[in-house]
């Protein structure tokens, strides 16, 4: 698999995902940013087909957005993250999945990875939803919606 530098040329090299995986990750973030449940439901099957790769791409995107928040000086604490993810997935997911995503993210933000893994019950899509919801929430803290999606397309190497 080809390898590229992280967005902004910082940090270690990461595997370059296929364009369809990048599009799927960005489409998930866009659906959460727009609070568009119908669009989210359309994207979920594509995400489930490539859950591991989409999760990997979302990790890269969320790390990029985390750095952007730090660079802009926006105050974003772990408690803000937990609240934002819970608010972002509220009414977007079935209740049992919403609960799993919110509680797994809460455990993740305090470094309790074993607990987070238990809350996922081995479902990689819980992590996909966690990371997409986090990326939408933190991304909207520093970008307007259109700018967020445009920026993500640029940093992932997708054309507009």
TrEMBL record:
The chain crosses the membrane at residues 125-143. It comes from the Bacteria. Keywords: Membrane, Transmembrane, Transmembrane helix. This is DUF1641 domain-containing protein. It comes from Nocardiopsis changdeensis.
